Structures are given as C-alpha cells and as structure tokens.
Amino acid sequence: MNNIKIDSYEFIINKHKGLVYHIVNRFNVCAFDRDDLIQVGLMALLQAAKRFDINKGIKFSTYAVPFILWSIKKELRNKVCYLNEEEIDNLKSPTDNFKYQYLNEEEQELYKLRVIKQLSQREIANKLGVDQSTISRKLKKLKVEIKKGM
Prior knowledge:
mainly alpha; Rna Polymerase Sigma Factor, Chain: A; Arc Repressor Mutant, subunit A; 2 domains; 7 helices; elongated
C-alpha cells in the first residue's frame, strides 16, 4: 500500500512540476539559485499532493498553486540577498541597463535596499528612520532616474 502512495505522489509531481517551474520563473530575485526555489516548490507540490482530497471537487493544480506560492515566498522572505564587493562593482559596469554610478549616494542606497536586498518600503523606512510615504516618493523619483539613465 505504501508503494502505491509513493508511486501516486511521484506521478502527481511529474505531471504537475511544470507549475513549479512556471511559478519560479515569475520571480526575478538576485543571488538566489533558481534550483533552490524549484526544490522548495517541488516540496510544496508534494505537501499539496499529500493533503489533496479528490472528493472536494477542485482540480489539483488549483489546490497546489497556493502551496507552491506560499512556500517560495516564505523562502524568499527568510533570506536576504547580500552582494559581495565584486558583485556591487559589477553593478557599476557599462553593461548594466542603467548607469548606477550616476546615482547619488542616497539613490544608490535606496536601490540596494529595495532592488538588491528586496526590502519592503516599510522595512526601508524603519531602517532609515523615516516614514513610508517618504520612501515611496523617493523610490518613484529613483525609478525616473533609472529610466533616464537607460
């Protein structure tokens, strides 16, 4: 009986692992190994398969997507993306989509906190000791500067 369950889970995972790849591809996060996120998503898919009740009348994929999304988002929230000095220097390379070096010091710091470290506006505001609306305005201004520099 256990082999039947294991075979069933394997079949479900193989049939629906495309969901995991699709969801992982929606995330564009620095310094995270895509394979790690896929692994987290596959584990969530297995968890969904174990909890799925066919008698509820919903498709497995509909049931599994929230499990996968939640697990991947949790993994991303639990890790903060730090760059080493070489990676920061690479941001200043001419091959970038914008001229990072032309941003002032405050804009560079905001860029690092929001884009590289993936902090929320609230987290940035707390870190810098200002209110969230100030950060929101500064990020909008930064977006304009980045577009001008592209």
